[in-house]
Amino acid sequence: MPEISKRGQSVPMSPFRKLIPFADQAKARGKHVYHLNIGQPDIPTPPKALERVRQTDMKVLAYGPAVGNLSYREKLVDYYRQFEIEVTPDQIIVGSGASESLQILMFACFNQGDEVIVPEPFYANYNGFAQIGDVTIRPITTHINDGFALPSIEAFEEAINERTRGIMITNPNNPTGCVYSKDVLLALGALAKKHDLFLICDEVYREFCFDDNEFFSVLNIPELQDHAIIIDSISKRYSACGARIGAIVTRNEVLLSSLTRYVKLRLSPPGLGQILAEATLEMGPDYLTEVKEEYDRRRSVVFKRLQNMPGVISYLPGGAFYCFAKFPIDDADRFCQWLLEDFEHKGATVMLSPGAGFYASPNMGYDEVRMAFVLNTNDLEKAMDCLEIALQVYPGRVVAKQAEAALRNK
Amino acid sequence: MPEISKRGQSVPMSPFRKLIPFADQAKARGKHVYHLNIGQPDIPTPPKALERVRQTDMKVLAYGPAVGNLSYREKLVDYYRQFEIEVTPDQIIVGSGASESLQILMFACFNQGDEVIVPEPFYANYNGFAQIGDVTIRPITTHINDGFALPSIEAFEEAINERTRGIMITNPNNPTGCVYSKDVLLALGALAKKHDLFLICDEVYREFCFDDNEFFSVLNIPELQDHAIIIDSISKRYSACGARIGAIVTRNEVLLSSLTRYVKLRLSPPGLGQILAEATLEMGPDYLTEVKEEYDRRRSVVFKRLQNMPGVISYLPGGAFYCFAKFPIDDADRFCQWLLEDFEHKGATVMLSPGAGFYASPNMGYDEVRMAFVLNTNDLEKAMDCLEIALQVYPGRVVAKQAEAALRNK
Fold it and tell me: 0.90 exceeded by the pTM?
C-alpha cells in the first residue's frame, strides 16, 4: 500500500468541523443541536441576489476570466470606495472564497520556511494554509483580559527575525471580535514599512463594527502601497458562505502579476457564485444595516448570558460575530465532545469550537471556546440555557472542583 | 518594497491563456478570433440542469459538507456504475474543479521533492500544480508518429527512482486525444503495484472515446485498491466549465482521511455549481450521445483539413476533443502570437495553444500546437481556412524555406 505524504498525515483538522461526527450522532438520536461552532449565519442571503441567479439566461456556463468577471470587479471598486479604499479593477483578484485567496497568497508572498507573524488566537484554518504553503506562523499571544487587543508594536518587533516576511491580522477579528483602531493599524503599518514586510489583513467582517468602533482598512495606510494586502469574502456580509466568492486586493503590481499566474492555473472562480456576488452589490444599504443590527442584538444576548455564568470569563466583542470565552473546564475539546455525546437539556445541546485550534503556541486555549452568533436571539437564548446548565453539571468542571476542595478544607 | 517569493516569481504561466492580451488587442481592432486555444466548448450546458438552478428556492446559500453534498455524491455513485466503477459516496471528494482536486492530491500523496512520472505532452497546468506542491514531474516523452501512445512499461520502469511516488496520466488524453486500452492500463497498474506507486488518472473525458476505442478506468484495475485515484470534472462532459465542480475518487481510506482534512480547510465546494452538477446526473443519456456525435464530426473536420495542409503532421485522435499537431514553423509561441497580431483572413484569425507548455522536458513542442475542437463545424472550417492560409504566409515557415533552399540547390 502506497504511503500518503508526511504533510498529508499532519495537515491540521479544522476545529470548526472536527466534532461533526459527534453532532451527527447526536442528531441521529433525536437531539437538537444549536450550532455555534461555525460562522454559518442563519440570516437569509439577499433575496434579490438569489433572484438574479434564478433569472440567469445563459446558454453556456463557461470559464470566466481567471481574475474574476470584470463587471463584478468594477462594482467591487465602488463598494470599496464606500470605505474610502481607492483601487482599480486590476487590483482585485476574485477567488474561490477567502480560503483559496489566502492559500494563493501564501505561495506568492512567502518562500518555504519564511515566517509570518500572526496574533493568536487567530482564524484556525490559517494553521492549515500555512502548512500547505510550508510557511511558519510566528504567533504573538493576545489576552482575554483586554478583549484580545493587539500586543504592543514592541512585541511585534521582537518577533521579527531574518525569516520574517509578513504580518497577518484579521480585522474585525475572528475568533475574538476585536476591532483594531486606526492608530494601532498606522503603527503596525509603520513597522511593516520599516522592515519591508507584507501586511495582510483579512477584512471580511468590515461591516460588523459595533458601538464606537470604526473600521479602518490597511489599504488606507499611507505609504504602504506595495506592502498592504486585503483578503475579502462575500460569505459573511451577505450570508452567502456557499457561493465561495472571495478576493485579494493589493496595489503591488509584481504581486498582482504573480497572483494572476496562480489563478490562471485553476482557470476561473465559480461562475454562478459570481452572478450572486455581483447582484449583492447592486442593492441598497438596507440589507447590511439590518443584518448589523441583528448581530448587535445577538452580541448583547451572548454577552449578558455569559456574564451571569459563574467562572466564565468573557467581554463584549467590538466587531464580527464571535466571542472567545474562557470556561471553568478541564479541557475544551473534551467539554465540546461531551456536550454532543452526553449532555441534553430539553432535548437539545449546543455545539462550540474548542479553543486550542485557534492558537499556534502549544498548550493554549485548552479552557477556551469560540462561539459564533449565527442563530436568532430566540435560539441563541436556548443555546445559552444549554451552556449554562452544561457548565454546572460537566464532570470536568474546574471551578466546582476548586469550590468543593475549598469546602473540604474548611 | 517587499519582494514576492521565488516560487511566486517562477510559477508557470498557463499556455492556454498567456496569449489572451494579444487576442484582446486583435478583437479591439475588430478582428474575429476563433478560439481553439482553450477547452471551453460552445456546446450548450444541459438546459434542464440550468433550469434546476433557476428553480432553486433556498433561503440561505450556506456552506455545504466539505467533501460535497451527499445527494450529489450518491448520484455520482450511480453515474460511475455505468462504467462498471463500483464506489461508495464516502470514496468521492467533490472539489472546486479538477484543478483544485489535482492540487490537493499533490499535497496528500507526495512529499516535497517526490517525483511523479507523467507522459508528455500532458495537460499543461500539471506543471503549475507540481510547482505549487513542490513535486517534480519526471516526463516520459510520447511521440506524434504513433498518435502519442503510451511508451512501453520498460520506459516507465526506467524512469522510476527512489523518489518516485506516483504515475499520473490523462485518459482520454488532453492534449493528444490518445485513449489508453485496457491492456495498457492493466500493465501500468501492475507496475504501480510492483513499485507501490499511486496511479492517478485524470478521466474527465471518459465519455468521448471514438471509433473502436473503449474507456477503461484505473479504478477497475484489480488489486489496485489503494493505489488507484481518479480525477473528475463536469466541465467538459456537460459543458459547464464555469461551475467549478470536480472530484477525487479513490478507495484508499488513509488518503481519503487526509483529503478530507484538506478540503475542510477551504470549507466547501461551490454550492450553486453543485446544484447544477447534481441536476446533470438526473438527465437521460441523450445529451451526452448528441454531444459525443458532435465532437466526432468536429474531429473529422480537423483531421481532414490538417491532412491537406502541406508540412503539417497530424493523426486522428481517438478521444477527448483535442489534437496536438506538428506545424512547419520555426516557433509555435511566435506563430500563435503572429496569428493574433499580424494575420487576418476575411476579418478573422485563429487562436491556438503553443506546444512547449505541454512538456516538462526542455526544447520540446516548439513546433507543435494544441487545438481544441470547441467550435461548431461551420466555425471550425473557417478557423481551418485561417490556419491553412496562415501556414502559407507565415514568415517563420520552415517547409517553405526548406523547399526554397532545395530549389536554390538545384
Answer: yes
